[in-house]
Amino acid sequence: MQAMHDLDAEDVEWINVVGHHWRGKATVYKGHVAIHKGMFATTSASVDTVMIRSIAPDVAVAVATLHFGASLDPRYPWVAAAKTRASFTMVKREGVWKIVHFQNTVIDPKAENDDVPAYDATGFPPPRDR
């Protein structure tokens, strides 16, 4: 966890999968320590895919698909396995890439294969049974 947080900028903002909005490197670290000592202590995590694109000099966005295992701790039966998509905004400061913003969303399996809109200009998919 320390290695991951070494990538955080001092002014990082972190929005996790349940909507917590942590501001500042110390707060992000404190939040992760708390959840990883508790409900996520017995879970696994892996990275499936990563796409990175430069959006300006010394600014890039990385989008990663992540897999998290269910908690093995019986005190946390609600911590289910999840597949998420995370977005990292990175800036190069003093020659080092740092995370300045992070946001993570659980991927709804019913919507996962609909990344490319295949419906009209209403912005909503046609009604159908899912």
Automatic annotation (TrEMBL):
Keywords: Plasmid. Signal peptide: none annotated. Residues 2-103 form the SnoaL-like domain. This is NTF2 enzyme family protein. It comes from Gemmatirosa kalamazoonensis. The lineage of its organism: Bacteria, Pseudomonadati, Gemmatimonadota, Gemmatimonadia, Gemmatimonadales.
